[in-house]
Amino acid sequence: GLPMSETCIHCGAHITDRSRMGRPRQYCSDVCRWRVRRRRRQDVPPDLPAADTRRQGRRSLRNTWREQTRITSTPRTDADGNPIWSARVRPFAIPDDLEQLRAPTVSGRVTLPRHLWWSGPSPLYDLTQRRDRARVYEIVLQEGTMEDLRRYIGLEDLIDLWPDMVLPPHVRAAWSRKIRQQLGVDLEC
Q1: Quick one: average pLDDT of 154-170?
Q2: Spatial distance between the Cα atoms of 73 and 148, rounded to a whole number of angstroms
Q3: The model's pTM
Q4: 5 DSSP β-pair partners
Q5: Secondary structure, 3-state, 110-161
Q6: What Å distances lie between residue 98 and 145, 154, 159, 180, CA to CA?
Q7: Is the Cα dihedral 85, 88, 92, 98 positive or negative?
Q8: Which of 12, 22, 33, 83 is 20 to 30 A from residue 135's alpha carbon, by CA?
């Protein structure tokens, strides 16, 4: 028999499928196939925030999701300024007013709740140690709700620990922008 003739759904190039088994080919090369997959992945909405379902009902989780999406900054927006979510960018909380971040400088030890440290038993953090305090701040800035921010984050400590924290670029940029706007402090990204 004659080979089937089709065109690539990505670039429109001519495809000649010589095999008779399996599905007909849709792409002229692996490059075209991966480009289409990457474009599809960018249109996927983010995952819901992690929550301890034993303590939080479905309604509470929905409210948390609404709160986080309402106050979240994203690194990319469309032409109208609407946020573009991707599979790689999770929502995170930023307060409208940074004055809400008045948690006292805590000394002692802390274990983070399950919705913040969800990958097993939470380690014990000694908040008198700068490194442990920076790690707690990193986790809360990325995973925490507004309530967590108020409980664990102090504005003075946040600015002091900023150079030591390892944060995803979009989280670092959003917090840096918010601090610059409200306090006039220019933190290096």
Answers
A1: 92
A2: 17
A3: 0.55
A4: 16
A5: EECCCCCCCCCCCCEEECCCHHHHHHHHHHHHHHCCHHHHHHHCEHHHHHHH
A6: 14, 10, 12, 11
A7: negative
A8: 83
